[in-house]
Write a structure and sequence with these properties.
The chain contains ten helices and 15 strands. A seven-stranded mixed sheet has the order 1-2-3-10-13-14-15. A four-stranded mixed sheet has the order 6-7-5-9. Strands 4-8 form a two-stranded antiparallel sheet. The longest helix is centred in the N-terminal third of the chain and has 19 residues. The protein starts with 20 loop residues before the first helix and ends in a 19-residue tail after the last helix.
Length: 390
């Protein structure tokens, strides 16, 4: 049972903005990605046969959220079994028909439940509308020009992307490359917006800036990004997924529950955000906090006291993808409730020290041997065809 098609691959173009991750990995002919496909095949083959089809279905679904969830479950299964522990998938628990992802038969057996922080439905919908715009623009090549593209507001309905594309091309045709290049070289030019095309219609606010390239067949959009920095609150998403799993299998469990949270948010989820979601304060050590100091419920601590002793540990990871396996190490967090035992340490995770106001950087290295990948994993750059957009 294979994850990827067993076919020749010749397409070396970059991944399109709206292209699902699996679709890209399945069609790319760049040799850079051959080990990536091999790794997924190896990880899936390590699962018991009866559990492979559902994971392959998630990977192949065409939904990046499902792909990421399957990746996280595969990662956890591989790193735990590769560390020498037997893993039971979807074990039975007395009193409920629901089953956690894994039961790890370690010295202290524990349930391991994988969960991913994903965007809210409304954010996913707006991201899809933006991706549709970018996909249309990525198909265009213009001689001598590229654009920087910033988005300030994504409208409530899809924009007419082909009309926008045509208007941009006509606008570029009317610009003088030498004049725009001269204005770009003046940091305080009062007429610097001569090379700017604002699109403010139907609830959308996009801005494009002309970049003379002097190159034949340039990608239309060379640089892109959010035009206005927004406040980042990753702790709320972490809290939401922790709450969804904390009591899902009951509180009187035969083994402790460890929730493994993957948070690959746009802005990286920092340790202080995990601390805030778990203990109620991003910087104060848990043993320095009083219940009365808290204003909202955290995972383990509330204004009414400690809770969730049956779920004494949380594993966290941020910006952990197949690309970053040699760089990112999961964190292991533990409740500070007195008298509650922990499953730590875990050889593949770095135990978070919360005794001070800042959590020290991880001391452990990624468990590459357990994961079955070399130290030079994903080193170098893909051999994409020249002139393709990113």
């Amino acid at each position: 049972m294979k994850v990827f098609d067993d076919v020749p691959r010749y397409d070396k173009t970059r991944r399109a903005e709206s292209e699902p991750e699996f679709a890209f990995l399945n069609r790319t002919g760049s040799v850079f990605f051959e080990p990536v496909r091999d790794m997924f095949e190896m990880w899936v083959a390590a699962l018991p046969l009866e559990h492979r089809a559902s994971v392959i279905g998630q990977l192949q679904s065409g939904e990046d959220d499902a792909f990421e969830s399957a990746f996280w479950e595969l990662y956890l299964h591989q790193v735990v079994t590769g560390s020498g522990h037997e893993v039971e998938i979807h074990p039975n628990i007395s009193g409920t028909s629901k089953r956690p992802d894994f039961l790890v038969h370690a010295d202290v057996p524990f349930y391991l439940e994988a969960v991913v922080v994903s965007a809210r439905p409304e954010r996913k919908a707006s991201d899809r509308r933006l991706a549709q715009v970018q996909a249309i623009l990525d198909e265009v090549r213009v001689v001598g020009w590229s654009l920087s593209f910033d988005w300030y507001v994504i409208g409530p309905a899809p924009v007419k992307s082909t009309k926008l594309r045509d208007r941009l091309v006509r606008w570029l045709d009317g610009l003088d490359p030498e004049d725009v290049a001269r204005r770009l070289g003046r940091a305080y030019d009062d007429d610097a917006d001569a090379g700017c095309f604002p699109f403010i219609e139907e609830g959308w606010h996009l801005e494009f800036r002309a970049l003379p390239t002097g190159v034949q067949d340039s990608p239309l959009v060379l640089m892109r990004g959010m035009g206005r920095a927004a406040g980042v609150d990753n702790a709320t998403g972490v809290t939401r997924v922790l709450n969804s799993k904390a009591n899902r299998y009951g509180r009187n469990l035969p083994h402790p529950l460890v929730t493994a949270v993957l948070s690959n948010t746009g802005a990286r989820t920092k340790d202080f955000e995990f601390r805030s979601a778990l203990y109620g304060d991003p910087f104060l050590p848990p043993n320095h906090l009083r219940d009365a100091d808290l204003h909202t419920d955290a995972h383990w601590r509330t204004p009414r006291g400690w809770r969730r002793a049956h779920n004494p540990n949380v594993v966290s990871a941020s910006w952990l993808t197949w690309r970053s396996l040699t760089k990112q190490v999961p964190r292991l967090w533990a409740t500070a409730e007195p008298g509650i035992p922990s499953v730590r340490p875990l050889s593949w995770a770095d135990t978070a020290d919360v005794s001070g106001p800042e959590t020290p950087e991880p001391a452990n290295q990624p468990a590459l041997t357990s994961l079955g990948i070399p130290a030079n994993w994903c080193a170098g750059e893909p051999d994409f065809a020249r002139g393709t957009s990113s």
